[in-house]
Amino acid sequence: MSQRPRGFVQRWNPRAETLALLEKVTGILAEYVRQLPLTIRQILYRLVGRHGFEKTELAYSRLGETLNKARRARIVDMDAIRDHGFTTNVPDFYGSANHFFATIQISAQSLRLDRQKGQDRRLALWCEAGGIPGLAR
C-alpha cells in the first residue's frame, strides 16, 4: 500500500496519458487565470465540456489525486487550485468575566428559534457552489 506523499515530491514520473491530462489542465488554468483559484470540480467540468473527460465520481477522485501529485511535484501551481480540505478551529478566549457576559448578551440578541420544529416536513436548501466565495450567500 503506497502512502499519499507529504510535502513536495522531488521525483514523479507520470505516464504519458497523465502528462496529456496535465497539459489540458494547465491550459484551463491559463484560460481562467483571472478567476484563479479554481476548484477541482470547476476543472473537471471544463475537462468534460471541452475535452470529453469522463464525468463520474471515480474520474473526479482520480483527477483530484493527479492534481495533488502534480501540485506536490510543482508541475501545477499550489495557489491555482482552491483547496477546502483544511480546517482550523481556534478556541474563544475572553479578557474577563465581563467580556464573556457581554459576548453572551450580543449573541442572545441574534437568537433564532427553529420554526420548523415539530413539523412533519423540514425544508432544506443545498447549494454546491457554497464553497465558492461570492456565489452563494
- H-E order: HHHH
* Overall morphology: elongated
Number of helices: 4
Question: What gap, in angstroms, lies between the N and C termini?
Answer: 42 Å
How much strand content do the residues show?
Answer: under 5%
- Computed over alpha carbons, the radius of gyration is 22 Å
Mean pLDDT: 87
Helix content: 40-55%
Total strands? 0
SSE order and pairing:
Layout: H1 16-31, H2 40-51, H3 57-72, H4 97-109
Which terms would index this structure?
single chain, about 140 residues, mainly alpha, 4 helices, about 0% strand
Walkthrough of the structure:
There is one protein chain. The protein is mainly α and 137 residues long. It has four helices and no strands. The protein has helices at residues 16-31, 40-51, 57-72, 97-109. The longest helix is centred in the N-terminal third of the chain and has 16 residues, at 16-31. It is elongated. The model has no long low-confidence stretch (mean pLDDT 87).
Write a brief caption for the model.
The chain is built from 4 helices and no strands. By secondary structure, the protein is mostly helical.
